[in-house]
């Protein structure tokens, strides 16, 4: 941890509320990228065809149609108008083209997230998908609950999708650990007002909340709202700017939030992160150690020469 910043254990101990991001924080980015999103692309046509007559899909299609109309009017890249026809196959084909364009653009729009959530529900229920959660997350959830802390999720994925992931996780049903869930219905994750809206619902002071995320823009937004923030550095997360590392502490595992409870040394990955935060300090330490060894070797050789001279 960079000198001058609050210890992560102190920050965690002072928090009565934990607000957690998902991707790159509790869950591997590769899981969402390589399993959840490809499932939607692969199955969306068949899903719409098989559920077309259900009330849920009718509502999803109506919401998507409205979003597409707005996108076409605004000239959003990849958007295309839906055909004026009753031919189901043509309409579905146009809907799928727009869904894929939205996903290509990493759009966070509600209608897309809702449809994805409904599709993932079926995937989880059928056992086609199991939610990934890092091994260090469950022990942390158990400790936080034992300490009486409240735990919430804030993700760009819909609340329904969040609940599905944790209810069908690789560590079993984890939903009972959470006091609530937030998605982009409260606002964008890179806007401070979104975090203020969450605070109003949590009914607590900003300084009582610790937000854990892997995204620097989200960190700044939460900090602007008065929350404490620690950044998660996991495999696949985006490199963090130096300016961000100067402001926020980082962890590579939730276990580091309880580091004082263990005598185990930091992981090699944690050591690399700390070295990066400390600039050249780690390098200087290595040079000092090398110089010390060099001095000892010189003294040793000198002692042996003096010993030989004395024997002569």
Characteristics of this structure?
disordered C terminus; alpha/beta; 312 residues; six-stranded parallel beta sheet
Overview of the molecule:
- The protein is an alpha/beta fold.
- The protein has helices spanning 8-14, 29-51, 55-74, 88-104, 110-126, 137-146, 159-167, 192-202, 216-224, 242-247, 268-277, 281-311, and strands spanning 17-20, 150-154, 180-182, 209-213, 228-232, 249-251.
- Strands 3-2-1-4-5-6 form a six-stranded parallel β-sheet, with helices on both faces.
- Helix 2 packs across helix 5.
- The longest helix is centred in the last third of the chain and has 31 residues, at 281-311.
- The N and C termini lie far apart (56 Å).
- Mean pLDDT is 86; it is low at 261-272, 280-291 and 308-312.
Number of strands: 6
> Segments where pLDDT lies below 50 for 5+ residues?
261-272, 280-291, 308-312
Multimeric state: single chain
**Mean pLDDT, nearest integer?**
86
Rg, nearest Å: 26 Å
**Principal-axis shape:** globular
Taking the sheet with the most strands, its summary is: 6 strands, parallel
Output the number of helix runs: 12
Topology as a string of helices (H) and strands (E): HEHHHHHEHEHEHEHEHH
Biggest sheet, spatial arrangement of strands: 3-2-1-4-5-6
Give the helix/strand layout:
Elements (H helix, E strand, L loop, with lengths): L7 H7 L2 E4 L8 H23 L3 H20 L13 H17 L5 H17 L10 H10 L3 E5 L4 H9 L12 E3 L9 H11 L6 E5 L2 H9 L3 E5 L9 H6 L1 E3 L16 H10 L3 H31 L1
Helix pairs in contact: 2-4, 2-5, 3-5, 5-7, 8-9
């Amino acid at each position: 941890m960079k000198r001058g910043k609050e210890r992560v254990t102190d920050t965690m101990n002072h928090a009565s509320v934990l607000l957690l991001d998902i991707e790159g924080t509790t869950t591997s980015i590769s899981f969402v990228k390589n399993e959840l999103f490809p499932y939607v692309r692969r199955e969306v046509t068949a899903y719409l065809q098989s559920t077309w007559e259900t009330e849920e899909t009718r509502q999803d299609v109506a919401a998507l149609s409205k979003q597409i109309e707005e996108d076409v009017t605004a000239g959003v890249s990849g958007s295309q108008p839906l055909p004026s026809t009753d031919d189901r196959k043509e309409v579905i084909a146009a809907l799928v083209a727009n869904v894929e364009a939205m996903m290509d653009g990493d759009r966070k729009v509600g209608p897309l997230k809702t449809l994805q959530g409904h599709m993932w529900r079926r995937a989880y229920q059928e056992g086609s998908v199991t939610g990934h959660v890092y091994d260090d997350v469950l022990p942390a959830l158990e400790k936080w609950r034992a300490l009486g802390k409240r735990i919430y999720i804030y993700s760009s994925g819909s609340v329904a999708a969040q609940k599905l992931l944790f209810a069908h996780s690789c560590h079993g049903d984890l939903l009972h650990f959470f006091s609530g869930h937030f998605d982009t219905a409260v606002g964008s994750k890179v806007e401070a007002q979104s975090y203020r809206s969450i605070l109003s619902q949590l009914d607590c002071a900003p300084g009582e909340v610790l937000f854990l995320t892997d995204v620097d823009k989200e960190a700044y937004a939460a900090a602007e709202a008065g929350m404490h923030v620690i950044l998660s550095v996991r495999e696949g997360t985006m490199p963090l700017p130096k300016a961000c590392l100067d402001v926020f502490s980082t962890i590579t595992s939730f276990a580091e939030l309880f580091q004082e409870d263990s005598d185990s040394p930091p992981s090699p990955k944690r050591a690399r992160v700390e070295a990066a935060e400390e600039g050249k300090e780690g390098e200087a330490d290595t040079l000092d150690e090398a110089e010390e060894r060099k001095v000892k070797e010189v003294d040793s050789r000198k002692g042996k020469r003096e010993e030989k001279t004395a024997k002569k």
